[in-house]
Amino acid sequence: MIVYLLCFILFLVGLYGLITSRNLVKIAISMSIMEFSTFLFFALVGYVNGGIAPIVDPADPVKIYVDPLPQALVLTAIVIGLATTAMMMAVIIRLYRKYGTFDIREIKSLRG
Amino acid sequence: MEIAISIITVLMIIGALYAIHARDLLSAVIACGIVGYGLVICFLLLKAPDLAIVQIVVETITLIIMVAVVLDSSREEKFSKPDGQGYISIITSILLIVVLFYFFKLSVETLDAFGSGSLRMAAPYIEGATDKTGSANLVTGVVFDFRGYDTMGEATVLVTAVLGVLTILRIKGKK
């Protein structure tokens, strides 16, 4: 159970950073941290004790494999995470070029 | 196994805490890299080589994008004493953390112990996958055959994101 707890603490650290920080780059970093903890949770759920990587070897007598389904889901999610991060960074760099700051509260007070 | 993963997860938590509290944005981005590459080692320990390969590529690209954004700026986060709004957000986050922790305590009891293989969905996939899909790698079989529509949707999301980035970076803002 301790791994699930640590994984959840990682999620909470990301959540804390997301709510409290005022810097746009740090908000993006916190969102990636939350994503990473979710991926780790999926990989933990799919693990089987004594299992091997899910690549079939006909000569192998022991047929215990790690669950391939969560791995397939995470594989999709990682690539989508890259897409969302790239999109977020593009918006951030536009905002920086317009306002000259990463601070969300200063951006809110300057109306362009 | 469980101990090794716990140690790496603790390292990832420390990296995440440093990333949130660092003054210099460049060190915050590099500390975010600690979390990502720690995740790669966790995937390798959890017998997920496909995930490790994809994660190491994606993490490198993400770091390059973030460093490019940060180097283009003044890099320093201005130090400001937390005022009323800051305290409100800190209190909100602590309340949220307490509530979420309560639900975590409720839900973690329904999970089986680590490593018991509690998901039963995989059995049909593992048994007939090589004959049905012709792929020795079960993850590839699931991604490109059983869940092919899902992968097509993922490709759509990727194309949309690339178009969005191009559009955002090309338009000229109002002066």
Provide an overview of this structure.
- The complex is a heterodimer of chains A (112) and B (175).
- Chain A is an all-alpha fold and 112 residues long.
- Chain A has a single domain, classed as Helix Hairpins.
- Helices cover 71% and strands 0% of the residues of chain A.
- The longest helix of chain A has 32 residues, at 68-99.
- Chain A starts with a helix and ends with a helix.
- Chain B is mostly helical and 175 residues long.
- Chain B has two domains: 1-78; 121-175, no CATH class.
- Chain B is 76% helix and 0% strand.
- Chain B contains seven helices and no strands.
- In chain B, α1 (2-21) runs antiparallel to α2, α2 runs antiparallel to α3 and α5 packs across α6.
- The radius of gyration of chain B is 21 Å and the shape is extended.
Assign a percent range to the helix content of chain B. Answer: over 70%
Largest sheet of chain B: none
* Tally of individual domains of chain B: 2
- Spatial gap, N to C terminus of chain B: 57 Å
- Tally of individual helices of chain A: 4
How many strands of chain A? 0
